[in-house]
Amino acid sequence: MRPLETDLIDRCVDAAGSDTIRQGFAERPRVTLYAELLADLRNIATGMCSPIRDFMSQHDFQNVIKDMTLESRVAWALPIVLDADVDTAGGVFPSDRVSLISNEKTPVGILDVEE
C-alpha cells in the first residue's frame, strides 16, 4: 500500500471554460445527480477526494471494496461511483460524453464515459 503522494486535484472551471463545456450540453445524454452524488462531484472537482479525478472505474471500485486501495495501490476506503438508473445507463456507451445536471435541471458538469 502506498501513501498519498499527489497534488490536490482541481477540476473546477472558470467562466470561459464553463461556456465551452455548455456547448452541446442539451444534446448529450443527461444524468441527474441527487444530493449525495452532487456532493461527490463537488468533492472530486475541488480536490477533497485527491488523487481521484473522476467517479471510480470498475477496477478502482473493485480494489477499494476488496483491498481498500485504488488500482494504483494508494490507500482509499470509500468507493465513489456514479449511480445511474437502468434506463439512463442503457443509453450510454464508452466514449460518450454525458451532461450532469442537478435535480433542479441546472448543468453541473460533464463526464466522459470510459466503461
**Second rung of CATH, namely the architecture:** Roll
How many individual β-strands?
3
Number of helices: 4
Q: What global shape is seen?
A: globular
Low-confidence stretches: none
Domain count: the total is: 1
Overall pLDDT: 88
Task: Quickly name the level 1 CATH class.
Answer: Alpha Beta
Q: How would you spell out the order of helices and strands?
A: HEHHHEE
Relevant CATH superfamily: Sulfate adenylyltransferase
Approximately how much beta-strand content do the residues carry? 5-15%
Q: What Rg do the Cα atoms give?
A: 15 Å
Distance between the termini: 26 Å
- What is the CATH topology? Sulfate adenylyltransferase
What spatial order of strands do you see in the largest sheet?
Answer: 1-2-3
Report the helical percentage. Answer: 25-40%
Largest sheet entry: 3 strands, mixed
What's a quick, concise take on this entry?
The protein has 115 residues and is of the alpha+beta class. The protein has helices at residues 15-22, 35-45, 58-67, 86-90; strands spanning 30-33, 97-102, 107-112. The protein is globular.
Structural write-up:
The protein has 115 residues and is of the alpha+beta class. The chain has a single domain (29-112), classed as Sulfate adenylyltransferase, CATH 3.10.400.10. It has helices at 15-22, 35-45, 58-67, 86-90, and strands spanning 30-33, 97-102, 107-112. The chain has a three-stranded mixed β-sheet with strand order 1-2-3.
